[in-house]
Fold this sequence. Notes:
Layout: E1 5-9, E2 14-15, H1 16-28, E3 32-36, E4 45-52, E5 60-68, E6 83-86, H2 91-95, H3 99-110, E7 115-118, H4 122-127, E8 135-136, H5 143-148, E9 152-153, E10 162-164, E11 167-170, H6 176-187
Parallel strand pairs: 1-3, 1-6, 2-4, 6-7, 7-11, 8-9
Antiparallel strand pairs: 4-5, 10-11
Amino acid sequence: MAAKMILMITGDFTEDYETMVPFQALQMVGHTVHAVCPGKIGGEQVRTAIHDFEGDQTYSEKPGHRFTLNAEFATVNAEDYDALVIPGGRAPEYLRLDPAVIAMVQHFASAGKPIAAICHGAQLLAAAGVLAGRSCSAYPACAPEVRAAGGSFADIPIDEALVDGNLVSAPAWPAHADWLAKFLKVLGTRIEP
C-alpha cells in the first residue's frame, strides 16, 4: 500500500470524535494527515465540541478537547494531497464562508480525489457546489442544503456510510467504523492480518 497525503480542514467547535478519530486512525494505518484551519498555524489548537444523541429533538453539545493542528492553512497546496477529510460539528458552518476553503474543496472534487465528509461536513460540499447529481449522507438537518446544492440526500442509518464515486459520507460519528473502512477502500488502502 502506498501511503497517502491527506488534508483535513477543520476549525473551532469541530465535532470532537469526527476530528480526533479519523486524524488518528488514518495515521495509524500509515497515511500522513495534515490538519489545518484558516487563520491558524501548526501547533495552534482548535476547540472541539462533543455532540451526543440523548433523545432530544437534536444533538446535545458539550465542551470537547483541544485539537492541535499540525500544518498551516495558508501554506498548504491542495494539489499536494491525495484526499480530503471534512469533519462535522459547527466548523463547516463558518468555514464555508472562506473562499480559499471553497477552492480547496473544489480542487479535490474536480480532480476526482477521495473526499470523506461526515455530519455537517456536507455544508462545505454544498457551498463549494460539488454535490450536483451526487448522493450524499449527512446529519439530517443538512438535508435541505444537500438538496439545494443539487444533490440527493441519503437518509441512511446513523452508523452507516455511503460511497458515491470518490465521495464517502456519513450522518455522524456513530458511523466511524463504516465511514473509515469505506474511505480506506476508496483510497486503495489494504489492511492485511
